[in-house]
Amino acid sequence: MFGKKKKQNKEPDYTNAATFSKLIAESNDPKAVINAALERIPEQDKQTTIDTALYNIVTYYKNINIEKPVAALLEAGANPAADLSSGFKSVILAKTIENNPSPPVIQMLYEGGASFDDALFVMKTNKGWTAEHMTRLEVFREKFSGKQQPVTGQSEEVILETLLLLQEQMRVLTERVDRLSSPVSETAPEEEKTTREKKPYPAIKADQPKKSPPPGAYC
């Protein structure tokens, strides 16, 4: 009678993004999982693999504490500003703000190179993002970068036109200040004569007294 064969523990497929991300998220020692995977993944695929794993964890693992997995991936060289072939940088930060807005995680991503400006661009140019997400992003921006962007609700075209108008107003004001501060000439130009020169009337001769004839003039 033959005994049952023992089941051999099959090594997980670390090249599968979903499998790799799940192992990291559920492990008590995510760093060990990442190190084991990097020993088996081809060199040319390592960066894409850990970047994709970081994206998957912040996107799909909403109900668990992801601080340790994120920290381990960043330590291993994951790029939080990677575009992941989507054409958008910092989509990882945008997804974190949407799904798992943990301040320590967002701070780690920001300090690792993610950009709030790029994440905001992702939100503005893709469907599914709301004003609440953008407001949340501005709160984290002010908290970690010390900068705050005004939320005007205006389009970029309107904002650009406003800036150009302000620039033109500044130019006009500068010209006025320059004219006022320039020295005044001591000799002002003579005013042009606008009145016609009056011609003098001909002099009127006074009546001359008639001379009486000399004596003996009448014969």
Write structural notes for this entry.
- With 219 residues, this protein is mostly helical.
- The protein has a domain at 17-149: Serine Threonine Protein Phosphatase 5, Tetratricopeptide repeat (Alpha Horseshoe).
- Helices cover 52% and strands 0% of the residues.
- It is built from nine helices and no strands.
- Helix 3 runs antiparallel to helix 4.
- It is elongated.
- The mean pLDDT is 79.
Helical fraction: 40-55%
Count every helix, treating DSSP H or I runs of 4 or more residues as helices. 9
Largest beta-sheet characterization = none
Give the topology string: H per helix, E per strand. Answer: HHHHHHHHH
CATH C-level class of one domain is Mainly Alpha
Head-to-tail CA distance between termini: 200 Å
Quantity of strands, as a count: 0
Helix/strand-derived category reads mainly alpha
Architecture of one domain in CATH?
Alpha Horseshoe
Low-confidence parts: none
Name the average pLDDT: 79
Radius of gyration (Å): 45 Å
Roughly what fraction of the amino acids lie in strands? under 5%
As for the CATH topology of one domain, it is Serine Threonine Protein Phosphatase 5, Tetratricopeptide repeat
Shape: elongated
Key attributes of the depicted protein:
219 residues; mainly alpha; Serine Threonine Protein Phosphatase 5, Tetratricopeptide repeat; 9 helices; elongated
Question: Quick recap of the structure?
Answer:
This protein is mainly alpha-helical and 219 residues long. 52% of the residues lie in helices and 0% in strands.
